């Protein structure tokens, strides 16, 4: 941000996380600038008319999805009330940390009701919605609110008094408008670049899946004779490959059907479906048990290192290789696939991480929206097995392809993270007065519709 100059003069704000602010900016707690969660008693309209309805999942950064309407008298009793021009912000984790905040615009009859996990900030005359929208995305505000959350687990919320008493500095309305215009322009540009990177990541993942799927179902020689596999979604496979069920080439162990007993200082990791992420064993939110419970949970056998963990639901089909350095047992809805021949593990793993498993799950779901597999459905997963020499060549090729695609995906993920950091830093610098934007104007090559929107 070296292209932007600081203000000519600053003063000490007296607030540790705010530091120095432009000399002419006014310090005030948010409660003096906006009304937090207006009372429903302030609504004097017709309760029979329709309003917009906003569940939590439809509040995103800079966007409120308005595709639901309900009569006001149906929702006024149990939901959060807001109007056009209000700033909406999630108050529950992880939506708050994800910066799910937006300005309410285009509400049906100018009125909206939504999730009780949404905080509503209604600007007073001394602040505009655009400036407030960006102000509550600023880093120090996010940090203070996050560290002050109360509640347990995934239901932690930002207390109202933390928001109300958070002290900010703000310029006069024309300057607020200028800052909001600048941030509208710059964040739109950054968001477009982020979207490009995210599209690239998805395309790379799709391409990786397609290449792996072709290798493990069609082989590397396009000239070999083919045969009907007998499985609709699998189609033709090399004529000399065997079509089998997973149970024919593996021992499959299901978890014990009992409620796990976790111990704070336990020595044994209880592997749950949430611990299998991106084909790796994740220790995030790890839970442990003691020796006694470990022996109960492993009556059917300790998952051997190098075998494959498989999740039956939440979601189905996540897999990872069992590590050799973590004492562990399986939790509920987990399965362990132990290939009869350990040399087949890489091929089976690649098959399960291709889109073949996705197609199988879809074929078994029969239109159901609940994505889970029964034990017998896992046993009967169809797959093809090439001769050992051919399998080794496929394993090597797929391994190299995975490394290449993973490198490209990581590069895009790093670029995306840097863009998010840039966006956050730019917002923080603008709304805390670290850069002077009073003379800023949109570049001359800015598309006309965007410039009209900015100046509206």
Automatic annotation (TrEMBL):
Domain spans labelled Type I restriction modification DNA specificity: 113-199, 239-390
Keyword terms, alphabetized: DNA-binding, Restriction system
Taxonomic superkingdom: Bacteria
GO molecular function term, any single one: DNA binding
Record GO biological process: DNA restriction-modification system
Pfam families: Methylase_S
Family: Belongs to the type-I restriction system S methylase family.
Protein known as: Type I restriction enzyme S subunit
Higher taxonomy: Bacteria, Pseudomonadati, Pseudomonadota, Gammaproteobacteria, Pseudomonadales
